[in-house]
Task: structure prediction
Amino acid sequence: MSGINDFVVKFATVNGSGSASANGIFAKTLFRMGIPVSPKNIFPSNIQGLPTWYEVRVSEAGYLGRREGIDLMVAMNPQTFKEDLAEVVPGGWLLYDSTLPRVWPREDVTIIGVPIAEMCAAKWQDTRQRQLFKNMVYVGALTALLDMDVEVLKSAVVDQLKGKEKLVAANMEAVALGREYACKNFDCPLPIRVRHADGAKGKILVSGNDAAGLGAIYAGATVCAWYPITPSTSLAEAFERHAKRLRITKEGRRLFGIVQAEDELAAIGVAIGGGWNGARAFTATSGPGISLMSEFLGLAYFAEVPVVLFNIQRGGPSTGMPTRTQQSDIISCAYASHGDTKHVLLFPANPTECFAMGAEAFDLAERLQTPVIVMSDLDIGMNEWVTDPFAWNEAHVHDRGKVLSAEQLEKFKELKGKDWGRYQDVDADAIPYRTLPGTHPTKGAFFTRGTSHDENARYTEDGRAHARVLDRIRRKFDTAQTLVPKPEVAIKDTSGKTGLIYFGATTPAVREALDLLEREGVKVNALRIKAFPFTRDVVAFCAMHERVFVVEQNRDAQMRSLLMTEAEIPGAKLIPALNYDGMPLTAAFVYGAVLQRLQPAKAAAE
Amino acid sequence: MSYIAKPSAHHPALPKNALGLTHRDYEGTMSTLCAGCGHDSITAALIEACFEMDLPAHRIAKVSGIGCSSKAPTYFLSRSHGFNSVHGRMPSITTGANLANRDLVYIGVSGDGDTASIGLGQFCHAIRRRVNMTYIVMNNGCYGLTKGQFSATNDKTSPSKKGDANPFEAIDLCQMAIQLGAGFVARSFSGDKAQLIPLLKAAISYWGFAFLDVVSPCVTFNNHPTSTKSYDYVRAHNMAVDQLDFIEEKEEITAHYAEGTSVSVTMHDGSRLVLHKLDQQHDPRDADAAIMAIRSNAAKGRVATGLLYVNETQQDMHDILATDARALNSVPMAELCPGVKALEAINARLR
Ligand SMILES: Cc1ncc(C[n+]2csc(CCOP(=O)(O)OP(=O)(O)O)c2C)c(N)n1
Ligand code: SF4
Ligand SMILES: [Mg+2]
Result:
């Protein structure tokens, strides 16, 4: 199956050993050769010493989901030799540092021993250098084994070492060392190898968190408050990095305010305070933070304050698997907080969408005057994806929603036929008009509160008024449904009986699985959810099919539950396909889940 | 009915301030607190202070947490926007609001439960960030709204109405505020308007974080003779470290204080707080002395009131973060959104 521009390499290293940048250079080189790659960091919740892996799938066909079965293992961590060897497919290769030679108990794997430590010891005096350059030596060996373009690799090294140009030469010497050794001692290149291609041409290589941070910049966000938590930290950091380049005035003043808060309660509080006061404000967190933010989310929902929250989901429950991926906060985010609450969710599937939805979330939040939660995850957020370049429409007018200026307040009655009241549904879209503090000397002031209030924002204990306000806020969800991004529907067979619903990071794996199934004669129509509330298309899609698989990365089929309760899809129709081991989803899993149901005999045979 | 509007008819003879506004223009809706509640007196003092300072009410934002005290912002400044947030989280809301618009005056109202228990962390960090605001704790030593449980500021010697002893030491918010770097720290008593109003004015004029702990008896749950937060107790044990006048910049300064026993403290806007020192030892610019004054009085069973500490040159959060001089919420989108060309350059770097 594997071959030219189609294989998986895995690097097994020790956390904190400097392998990350070498591995990044490896992936970047392939990307710059035009080959679609999907690097995945599989890292421990640890700073130094524990095993860490970096998997790179190479796929000229552009299948960038994770694939099991390693063709070439770069085994640099003695702690994990045994399991690393076991993961190599029969007929595969394993490269290791043969300074201390060892016997590898598998006949069907070709062992490539490179005396890396020995070579580094001979070349460099400094122990730190000896350690660091080891990584570039194995990359060098790979350039020969996989026939990588060394000039392209050099360009990646140069980029990686911006500001440390002096180190380029030494790094390239290390590459040459490994390359020469491999050329001399092995049959290079291997049958799995690379060649220049077009699949990644025009694309960019970027992580979802970097993209989402940039999206917030393009949205015009000025207030960011956050509390460090894997895997969301790099989003706030990306926002800050971009802001420091793009948001400094000529006088050197900042057009943004970032607060690293004391906890997630404060982080969302700061964001809500900013949103209340007319700034575009956001926070970023992950599961444990969502739990802490719940009370405040209910306040923003009920008091109708716009705020954007990026949830970079990780493995739960509790502290769970901080460095593994899941889609397991769907229910907790859709209904975050006590009482009747419901939140708008967006589901980006790649960094390009993290950028676009990251920006769109602010328009929706201000239009709808409610929290909007962008449901990314560790896989999208922290891994680099080959993805379409970011696009921005210069004509885009940021939708600041219904915010009244002093003049509009003056003329409100004239224009709308009734007096302004903060929670009056004047336009029959369930969205009232907002005023910002400081707007008008005598008009538009009101008291924002999480206690029950009537249409004029006055405290009330009148149950009917309370119910009226709650009903209107619910109707706002109907308006939301017309504004959120529509799902992506792919119909392979118009008379098909089988549908499949998916969303987010599982997208590449699902698409590959659908192609695999089609090759087996199984045509499955698919719909990718991009937002909650569900649009009518979701309901129509379910109605079209006898059975609909719902692919998601959690134990309790949370999206399926949401489809049942919110779109009233009968549960019997919705077949869960669930993965929750924390690893990015594989096409094989989806393929297996569908086949097992549709053709159990065939699935068993496979 | 739980919402009572006040009639807004103005008597033509009502005195007007420099903005042509009457006292009534600074009021809010009718209070629903218990008659005699200390919080209402603080509200009245706030109305007076804002009226006398000629503050445009709509340029003030009132933010609070949850509690009887946190309801108080409904009872003053109905021309100001208010935000009654969640329990203990007023500081974070104010921080965000202030980040969004540095040009408003922020008055944060909280209770001792709201600040010294559930919100202690946010209190500390708002101080640490030097949020430019006036932070008022209406301190009654108990949880009024949940019917009188001890709060963390209740003195160990002070029993509940039913006579239950309080087994734990009190948290002194003024000492904490000084240690955490609040630039203006004062304590007062809801029943002492003459002291409270000038302090409120000075706190509002102060650039940086101003903290005002106001002992405010809860007539329903904490006004029995044995309570150290009762009217009688505070009146008997009030040890003012200074007597004060607040002089606005625009006012003519009349020297009606005796030289040698007075200190003049200048606020950011040029207005001044003139302290007639009762206690010759106390210099409010000395943080250590301020803490000493609090502690030595407490040791004698007394409550040190007045301006305890002031740092005349504090930098606020915006100064520290180097944000633009304009309110961030007023910066046009065209300046915030970098546009297509910048994005193309970013795309190019990611290739
Ligand atoms: C998260 C949360 N926990 C508990 C409460 C219940 N509660 C309401 S007010 C209050 C205490 C208020 O005490 P304080 O801040 O001193 O205000 P006071 O009523 O004494 O003025 C409590 C515990 C709440 N509203 N929210
Ligand atoms: S219970 Fe106490 S604090 Fe609350 S309103 Fe009544 S007197 Fe004031
Ligand atoms: Mg209290």
